[in-house]
Amino acid sequence: RRRLVESGGGSVQAGGSLRLSCTVSGFTLGDSDMGWYRPAQGNGCELVSSISSGGTTFYADSVKGRFTISRDNAKNTLYLQLNALKTEDTAMYYCAKGNPGNWSLKGQGTQVTVSS
After folding, report:
1. What was the pLDDT predicted at 2?
2. How crowded is residue 28: how many other Cβ atoms within 10 Å of its Cβ?
3. Could you report the per-residue pLDDT of 15-41, keeping only the tens digit for each?
4. What CA–CA distance (Å, rounded) separates 18 from 35?
5. Does residue 89 have a pLDDT over 90?
6. Dihedral sign computed on CA atoms, order 104, 30, 111, 68
7. Rounded to an integer, what distance in angstroms lies between the CA atom of residue 65 and that of residue 84?
8. Facing residues of 91 across strands?
9. Taking the CA atoms of the chain, what radius of gyration do you get in angstroms?
10. Mapped to the 3 state alphabet, what secondary structure does the chain carry?
C-alpha cells in the first residue's frame, strides 16, 4: 500500500527553524518525483519545493534561500528544512508524489505555525 506520512510541524517564533519529514511506503523514493506544497492565500495551492528522481530541485520564490528539500533514500524519507521562518509561512504543509498539480499521492499534512 502506498502511503505518505508527514511529521515535524509545530509552532515557532519568526526567525526559527523546523524540519519536516515525509516517510514513504509502498514505492521507491529514489525513483520518484516528490514535492511539498501548501495552500495559497486566497485559493489553490502553492508548490513550495520539489525534487525530481534525478535530483533536480525547485523552490518557490517566496522560500528560496530559506527552505531546503532533500531525501534519504535508505530511510525512505523526504525532508524539508525550513529556516528563517516568517509569519506568512504559517500553513499546513503537504508531501506529495508525482507532478505538481497532478499529484498521484498526497499525505495528510503537518501544520506549521509561525508567530511574531
Report:
1. 93
2. 10
3. 999 999 999 999 999 999 999 999 987
4. 17
5. yes
6. negative
7. 9
8. 112
9. 13
10. CCEEEEECCEEEECCCCEEEEEEEECCCHHHCCEEEEEECCCCCEEEEEEECCCCCEEECCCCCCCEEEEEEHHHCEEEEEECCCCHHHCEEEEEEEEECCEEEEECCCEEEEEEC
Instruction: Return left, alpha or beta for 89; rule: phi > 0 is left, psi -120 to 50 is alpha, else beta.
Output: alpha
For residue 39 the three cell numbers come to 495552500
Contact status, residue 98 vs residue 50, Cβ threshold 8 Å: no
Cell numbers standing for residue 45:
495551492
In whole angstroms, how far apart are CA 15 and each of 6, 31, 68? 22, 34, 15
Instruction: Report CA 78 to chain centroid distance, whole Å.
Output: 8
CA nearest neighbour of 68 among 90, 46, 84, 54: 84
- List Cβ neighbours of 79 (8 Å cut-off, separation of 6 or more): 19, 20, 21, 22, 68, 69, 70, 71, 72
